[in-house]
Write a structure and sequence with these properties.
Distance between the termini: 31 Å
Order of helices and strands: EHHEEHEE
Strand order of the largest sheet: 1-2-3-5-4
Structural class: alpha+beta
Number of helices: 3
Helix content: 25-40%
Shape: globular
Low-confidence stretches: none
Length: 140
Amino acid sequence: MISAPPPAARTEPSTLLLTAAPEAIKSARDFARGWLEAKGIDRLSVGIALLVVSELVTNAYRHGSAPGEVISVRLYLSAAGPVVEVRDGSDAEPRALPLTLDRFSGRGLAIVSELTQAWGFRHLASGGKAVYAVLNGGAA
């Protein structure tokens, strides 16, 4: 995946700030569930979106942040569909590893790639990066 900006927002982003810790993953899922359901996204799409949010926040926690640093989750609607964006303090570029049967970790972005319309990242002027995914989702 190359560095690229996410689709433009059609709605004001909703943002959740989290402390880099294991419980951040559940907090992000709960936040995303409430937002997606409030937007009328169908149940199947919400379930898939929650898996995507889990993968992106897990990566930010494990690879993009030191314990106690801030991770942010932003959700908004774009012309392409709902977008989730996870920001962390690392400048390291994310990359999807091939899906193989002999690997027990490192498959998160490959799964995100399969479950979304698109994903990418961009470096932030303030440092760090934002990794985003354009979710599939229809109104309920």
